[in-house]
Design brief:
With 503 residues, the chain is mainly β. It has five helices and 36 strands. Strands 1, 3, 5, 6, 8, 9 and 10 form a seven-stranded mixed sheet that branches.
Length: 503
């Protein structure tokens, strides 16, 4: 009798628990969610962006403390919705939403060349479900270069003791340190550049005592002395020609000035700068009377896609006295134009005619698309240091038509600059301070075959709150098709070499 009664109570308990579980499961459903005609407060802003088929998951956060559960359903538009392969669902009992990497890659491969409908559901503290207005991710088959190299620096740009140069695989979360200020005898990797976005061809300049210029060819590191007689400094800014034989660079004598204005805390400018070309096969420095003229400032040289021109920025120093160059208040008169000069690869000589392509505002960091059609550059009111110029924007010059695109869909109200093309010319990366005006973050932008720019998106991170917790600014992003074949130890060993002399 007791045993039967006990069993009866046990069955009642089990039934009650089952009912509660059933009720709970029904309560968790979003099928009866209230539809609203606005997007959620989502960070990063990934709404209606164009993404490459090989990008890492776009993890995000719903920034509403009253919403605790998130369910996101991705559906390939035009596909059979009943086919589970055409749908990817991710859930979270917090405000953070993260996709499984393997599932994401499989799903994105199926979505290549199509749009993905993104539907986000969220439940409030009271148990009420909301269905937000859906948006789309346009997935293009044009892959982006898989690796991104960048500096992590203090946002003020005046403290270098904790600077690191890293390389991240943007298809996943893998990351490695290439150079660490504290490990390479307090040397800062000032600038670096890839040839044709090939990780096996790159140049590195490390600033500081016992520093130097390091050439990487297929993992073999060579220390070069590119500071010839009468040059203002070693090479600072570099660009390879298409064959990799020639390297154009500028020598810059730089001055830093600090400003009490919060929007322009630091100004960096040149008092002297010239452009040269190094023949890397014959250890020869090539100069031009026009490009080593002390009456002008020349900087940021870059080869055209066919190697027949060198594009750079130039300012007439005659318009500024030495006093002006030492007085920050008068630097508003220092404006650079975008120009180009022919270069003959066969005999290694400069041409004579200099063409001015843009001079409406001050120009810096010109970069030529690999197909030779576009020149992407930064414009600002004056000077060539856009990091603390809120008015700095990216412009794109169509070299076929001569028209300049102000890229309104790309630029923000804060600094947008420091850009680099992918090797296909379909993508470029840049640094933007659009969130808070202080911390720069890397954004990717798609340029379609008609030359139209699409809404950019920030580099995805495994943790959606990464940028909230990161107290460093991203700087000088460079795309490459593979990982660099060296590490910090390799650079340190190369610096111990006796530098090759160039005549």
């Amino acid at each position: 009798m007791y045993k039967a009664s006990k069993m009866k109570h046990k069955n009642i308990l089990n039934s009650t628990l089952a009912g509660l579980l059933l009720f709970a499961s029904c309560a968790q459903t979003h099928e009866n969610a209230e539809q609203v005609n606005h997007l959620p407060n989502m960070y990063p802003d990934y709404a209606d962006v164009t993404i490459p088929v090989n990008i890492a998951p776009l993890n995000f956060e719903i920034r509403n403390k009253h919403l605790c559960n998130i369910e996101t359903i991705l559906t390939i538009e035009g596909a059979d919705e009943d086919d589970a392969d055409n749908t990817l669902t991710a859930t979270s009992n917090s405000q953070n939403l993260k996709f499984d990497l393997k599932e994401w890659k499989y799903f994105l491969a199926k979505a290549a060349g199509k749009n993905i409908k993104v539907q986000i559901y969220s439940k409030s503290d009271e148990g009420k479900w909301t269905a937000f207005r859906p948006f789309t991710w346009q997935v293009v088959s044009d892959s982006i270069d898989s690796y991104l190299t960048y500096q992590l620096i203090e946002p003020t740009y005046d403290v270098w003791s904790k600077t690191k140069t890293k390389q991240r695989c943007i298809e996943n979360w893998d990351e490695k340190i290439i150079a660490d200020y504290t490990l390479i005898k307090n040397l800062k990797m000032n600038t670096y550049a890839y040839g044709n976005q090939d990780a096996n061809l790159s140049i590195i300049y490390l600033r500081g005592e016992n520093g130097g210029t390091i050439l990487n060819r297929n993992g073999k590191l060579r220390k070069l002395n590119l500071q010839g007689k009468g040059m203002a400094s070693p090479g600072i800014y570099y660009s390879f020609n298409p064959s990799g034989r020639y390297l154009t660079y500028s020598t810059n004598t730089m001055v830093r000035d600090f400003n009490i204005n919060a929007d322009k805390r630091l100004e960096v400018y040149d008092t002297a700068s010239d452009i040269y070309v190094a023949d890397l096969d014959n250890n020869r420095i090539i100069s031009s009377p026009q490009e080593s003229d002390s009456s002008h400032l020349e900087t940021f040289p870059t080869f055209s896609a066919n190697g027949k021109y060198i594009y750079y920025c130039a300012a007439n120093k005659k318009e500024l006295s030495d006093k002006d160059l030492k007085n920050l208040k008068n630097l508003k008169n220092l404006k650079y134009a975008l120009v180009r000069i022919p270069f003959n690869e066969e005999n290694g000589t400069f041409g004579e005619r200099i063409d001015t392509l843009y001079s409406s505002r001050s120009v810096c960091h010109p970069k030529l698309s690999p197909d030779g059609r576009f020149c992407l550059f930064t414009v600002l009111d004056y000077g060539t240091f856009p990091a603390w110029h809120t008015e700095s924007d990216l412009y794109m010059l169509d070299l076929q038509t001569g028209k300049t695109d102000s890229l309104n869909i790309v630029n923000s109200k804060k600094s947008d600059t420091y850009h680099c093309w992918s090797h296909t010319g379909r993508w470029f990366v840049f640094i933007s301070k659009r969130d808070d005006g202080i911390y720069g973050k890397p954004y990717f932008c798609y340029i379609d075959r008609q030359g139209k720019a699409h809404k950019p998106f920030v580099l995805p991170q495994k943790e959606p709150t990464f940028y909230d917790d990161c107290l460093k600014s991203f700087n000088i992003p460079e795309l490459s098709r593979g990982p660099v074949p060296f590490n910090t130890i390799g650079i340190e060993q190369a610096l111990k070499q006796e530098a090759e002399q160039f005549r």
